[in-house]
Amino acid sequence: MTAFFTLKTMNRIIAVSLILAGLSLTSVRYKLNRTGKYAGVLIEHGQIYQALAVAEYWYECFPAHTYLGHALGRTYLAAGDLKSAIATLETVCENGFNSFAVYHLGLAYENAFEWEKAVSQYQRILDYSTSFPMAETGISRVKAMQVIRRLNSETPAAIQRDLPVMAKTVSHLLEMDPDNAAAIEARLVITYLLRNRPLLESLIAEGQAGGEIWLGLDTIRENLESERFGPANDAIEVLKSRSAGSPAFLIQLYHLLTDSKPEDPSIRSRFSMTRAEILLAGRNPDKALEILRDARILDPENTEILELLTHLEQMTAAQGVRGE
């Protein structure tokens, strides 16, 4: 028996036996739907691996059952297995239209940064249904993240001309979904880049979370442009701890420090260290090494630079040995 039947085959035999034992097809479908719902309840209570065990077992028995397939795909998504989630949900959606399965496929694409595919799935739902708020907010969320990606990937000078249009886009997205976190962050970044300090102050007065660090960065920019490098450096150290590692904040801070050339070697090396730390946070050790080596030449007595440089060189060398 073992030589001829896999576990999957045995599971299917057991499932078919339930039907032969007297359960009607309607009863079996009801039980399978209940199983799918049970997996969803487990997910909502954080019992991801229990949900995965249930959904995988029964989907193996009934691979054509779309409700179970949706439950399994949703469970993979909750577990962070995006590849399996996408593969399962694509199969389910090919076998028939289910708004929630399509939504979770869009969400899986979104989490995998396949944003065009995500928008396509969300729009597919809206083409079929006149009202599906989760799909509408999904499109809004993805569009806001696309704005953030551009803000983070291009220099301020490169996008300066497009900032007013981007601001209008973000305002529209926030009208659709005021809680859109990506759009909220994009508005703060754009407001900072447009040098609209009154609006930043207004947003802070309205209770906008995160507004203070962008107002602080605007103050740092003013200090750097006025060559008040000491106060700027002090403010940077405070804001770095308060920014909670915001990529957008760190990227804009990096651009500021790159354009700043203080004559004092100690301040200049301090700025170089901050830039290197930002690059390391962004997983760019090669560029960080280059900056630290230049800073070491500029300020050879700085023990902090020496310590960070030595650590990074050792780490890079160890990775090279493992790669061989």
What's this, in brief?
The chain is an all-alpha fold and 324 residues long.
- Terminal CA distance reads 46 Å
DSSP helical segment count: 18
Mean pLDDT: 82
Number of strands: 0
Shape: globular
> What level of helicity do the residues show?
over 70%
Which structural category fits the helices and strands? mainly alpha
Q: Please report which band the strand proportion falls in: under 5%, 5-15%, 15-25%, 25-35%, 35-45% or over 45%.
A: under 5%
Unreliable stretches, pLDDT < 50, 5 or more residues? Answer: 1-5
Taking all Cα atoms into account, the compactness measure Rg is 27 Å
Helices and strands, in order, run as: HHHHHHHHHHHHHHHHHH
Query: What does the main sheet amount to?
Result: none
Feature tags:
mainly alpha, 324 residues, single chain
What does this structure look like?
By secondary structure, the protein is mainly α. Among the domains are: 163-245; 261-314, no CATH class. The chain is built from 18 helices and no strands. The chain has helices spanning 7-20, 25-44, 48-61, 66-79, 82-94, 99-111, 115-128, 133-153, 156-159, 163-176, 181-193, 197-205, 211-225, 229-242, 247-259, 265-281, 285-298, 303-323. The radius of gyration is 27 Å and the shape is globular. The model is unreliable at 1-5 (pLDDT under 50).
